[in-house]
Amino acid sequence: MAFCTAKIHAATPQSDSTLQVLHWWTSASERKAASLLAARMADEGITWRDAGIPGGAGIGAGKVLKSRVLANDAPEVTQIIGVSIREWADLGFLLELDKVAAANKWNTSFFPTIQNLIQHRKHVVAAPLGIHRINTLFYNKKIFSTLKLSPPENWDELVMVAAKLKAAGLIPLAQSSEPWQVATLFENLILAEGGPEYHRELFVRQNAQAVMDKRFSHALERLRQMKSWMNNPVDERPWTEVVRQFSKNEAAMMITGDWVKGELNDGGFVTDEAFSCTAMPGTGKYHLYSVDTFSMFTNDYSRIAAQEKLARLVATPAVQVDYNAVKGSVSVRRDADPARMDSCARASWNAFAQGATTQAPSLVHRMATDETSKDAIIAVIHRYFIDATVSPSDTQARLVAMYKTFGNNKKQTP
Ligand code: BGC
């Protein structure tokens, strides 16, 4: 794909106001959110050349980006998020946006966690778009009211609700066995077991002792228990297919990031009418986050004016309101008005606003650690999930061995 795009690039020389944007927003609602940004850019005279790469959680986009950079064909703008920002900035590829940040008072406008994420060695190298909450439980309102169920707030209530749904002949939980989707569910279970501090100990500091903790094996046991609430077998489907199952009333709950809300609304399955959100049981106060950001590749420095314009634009209050409403995420700005948000967004924004002690950086969505460790951890969890002969203690042993190889107890904080 990278080479094919490169050819187009060569055949049609771009003007200084054209920016190619590489991202992984390819579902219907994600495309709508991207188009909204493209339209706002067009108002300012900038042309958005779209390079959307399919694959939830950016698995495909990450690979395409690497091969394009190696081929000296980096896009001008890229959705690079979390720890990956540092990885690319370290290589010296990213445009510093300090002037834009200073002129637009980014240091007082954004939540501290956001400011931290977009900086590298005291320079701003990314522009933030929105905050997704990964510890979101979506439930079908009609099914819940027909069966007189309340949204579960803790594990015991979740088990009870799942049992009642099963007894009524329904599939309690819509889920895919795609590795990143399984690991997303697992990190929810970890957060419920031990809160943000334990989640960081495991996935940011990669402490082998934390892996041997009872809370880890407990979360694994629960993951296996939840399998009996899903399709049998749990097939490997893109997240949009899982959303479809949920919106056709074929499964009563879904636990994942709130990009799903954007997709549901886009398909006419409306927040607080057809479905509502609550936090993953046991994580009500916490916010497991993925923050979307754009970084700019400097290339030959010919597009700086347009790149700076784009960076400024995406973080303005007006674009933040409109973009996040479509995308399902919430504003990165502290001056956002929660009264203008739907109930899911309001709960997410308020939980995030509580500050670092209630926030946990998502492993799967690159907020906790580098690409290589993330992929390796996900593979271990996935193997446990799909193979019933792998025990929790096998899984712990595998992860401990891995953490030793990575050089465990890293002291960095995201
Ligand atoms: C991104 C979202 C995206 C989701 C599904 C996450 O990593 O933060 O913007 O919608 O992946 O692909």
UniProtKB/TrEMBL annotation:
Pfam families linked: SBP_bac_1
GO CC terms in record: periplasmic space
Annotated InterPro entries: Bact_solute-bd_prot1, SBP
Keywords associated with the record: Signal, Transport
Gene3D superfamilies: Periplasmic binding protein-like II
The UniProt record lists the keyword Protease: no
Keyword Signal part of the UniProt annotation: yes
Extent of the signal sequence: none
Lineage: superkingdom: Bacteria
Predominant place of localization: periplasm
Function: Part of a binding-protein-dependent transport system for a sugar.
Protein family per UniProt: Belongs to the bacterial solute-binding protein 1 family.
Protein name, entry field: Probable sugar-binding periplasmic protein
Species the sequence originates in: Undibacterium pigrum
